[in-house]
DNA sequence: TCCGCCGCTGATTCGAGAATCAACGAGACG
DNA sequence: CGTCTCGTTGATTCTCGAATCAGCGGCGGA
């Protein structure tokens, strides 16, 4: 968007730029039509380039979609890894990973949607090793849980891989609520949801604590039930376009 | 499987039987190749019928796949509803729904895989109203949670829909572990996993209690860590073929 | 036993979209 | 300023699978 052809870029940079443009367009189309449903022609049109150019940058459809997935997923993975390395105690780690996931969604709902809707779902034949990616996060997280168990921060009888699955399953489905529009994509809603995910995972539904500052809200009846969006007018209508 | 053509059935019943055969075949192929990836020819071959017959029973591909989804999903929904109506207190409801889900997986892994891999994931254009189905369960469960809140069994500050999402997200991802082969599909593993799902959801990872009878196991070192399957030969290479 | 209906067959048709390729022209380089 | 390179174009070709349809034969009824 920003750079029109006005700015002269050296050959190589212009090329890399093109490639990224196509990749972005692919994410866009992919998020609308799904892995199998999208046509190369759509991607080309979305990117504003000729049909054939897509094949100049990517061997075939599989490679294109593979790249889309790859770049999104590795970005997410590295953010998660970074978050984990910044924190030392278990609760903080859990909190920061959830934070990363929600932040990613806030930043790029489309991209997250693509990842959510495709990871681990689709025929084993596909070029993209989604199954492998799925396995990776699960095992990364499982390592964290196993470590927490050794530190005595977590009951020893839990299976770490399963704990990891419950963790990411919660995050994924929570984000799915937003993706499908059951919850409104609004900052305050996202924040409270994030807290509830963390609390429920750590302490269970029965003992989940309210979001920090929720007490204040509790005292103010007019803002009492932010979930049910009493006054529809406020921000409402976030530009739905998924 | 059981009935060959030996047993003479009245016309109408034979037809209904055929229809079911095709539906079953569709589930099978569908679970292998995915919604978009499967070809009608595959379904016909799998069912052992002529290509054209598929079109005799189903208007087109979409209707076929819609029926597959519909029948599986409605069966699941009614079991869930039944389970809910049998129990009165909150914990029991949670436990029994998880039980239903795991039981469904035990009975028909392929079918569950299809539901898991397709529900809520795919372009909104699809004939099947998967999104609607997804919304349905979430809202069914949300009702249960809201009711529990009124009974004081659950903190009032939780958003019921989100709680429902966390609940089903946990179940789904737990089953996914089995579907992709990260956990072995064995009765004892399934049982323990089921308990851990319930416990983690109700009380959180930090306070999840061991499975009933785990204490007994705890006392017996040889059976100590069934998760990590000390003796390697046991689990290893689960016959990946989903 | 014979007739006619209709469940069933699978080769054929048809369209959609993936992948190719020959040609064009803008920038690089002398 | 001319030429050459290569990014770019989009019509063309080719593949693959959805949907059709004309006819066959098993089954039930008379």
CATH architecture label of one domain in chain A:
Orthogonal Bundle
Radius of gyration of chain A: 21 Å
Number of helices of chain A: 10
Would you tell me the overall average pLDDT of chain A? 83
Shape of chain A: elongated
> The CATH topology of one domain in chain A is what?
Tetracycline Repressor, domain 2
Q: Tell me the fraction of residues in β-strands of chain A, as a range.
A: under 5%
Spans of at least 5 consecutive residues with low confidence of chain A: 1-6, 123-127, 229-242
Report the CATH superfamily of one domain in chain A: Tetracycline Repressor, domain 2
CATH class of one domain in chain A: Mainly Alpha
Query: Oligomeric status of the shown chains?
Result: homodimer
Q: What is the makeup of the main sheet of chain A?
A: none
Largest interface: A-B, 64 and 63 residues
Q: What is the total tally of β strands of chain A?
A: 0
Order of helices and strands of chain A: HHHHHHHHHH
The N- and C-terminal alpha carbons of chain A lie at a distance of 20 Å
Description:
The structure is a homodimer. Chain A has about 240 residues and is mainly alpha-helical. In chain A, about 65% of the residues lie in helices and about 0% in strands. The first copy, chain A, has a domain at about 90-220: Tetracycline Repressor, domain 2, CATH 1.10.357. Chain A contains 10 helices and no strands. At the A-B interface, helix 6, helix 7, helix 8 and helix 9 of A face helix 6, helix 7, helix 8 and helix 9 of B. The structure holds a DNA duplex (30 and 30 nucleotides).
